[in-house]
Write a structure and sequence with these properties.
Layout (H helix, E strand, L loop, with lengths): L4 H5 L1 H26 L4 H24 L6 H28 L5 H24 L3
Helix pairs in contact: 2-3, 4-5
Amino acid sequence: MGVNLHRLCGPRLFRFATVGVGAAALFFGLAWLLVSIGVPPFTGSVIAYATAFVVAYTSQRAWTFEGRHDHSRVLPRYLVLQLGCALSSGAFAHFAVDRFGMSPFAMSALTTLVVSAASYVLSSLWVFRD
């Protein structure tokens, strides 16, 4: 399995980051809006996350990875990857603060970079592999 670095680091990386930033902004804005209008925080956050997940998956599949992949194969993989990233981010954040004494800001920045990079690499090599 050869890795094409140009394909991995080229325009696809820009599209992946654009979708990720957009999904994060959607989650933030929607969670804020829902809670602001009286939806309980847990419910509002879950609705916002589910909405951002659907938008991110759809956009990653269609735009970032050019829509050549069968939903029945890639959607379960995407779900597993995102669950793994969520759990990994929690563990990474825990160690960054408790073991290495990082500030919350530094922990958030480093966790975001590490988990985003892992998500991109695994999306490219496993979830949306040609």
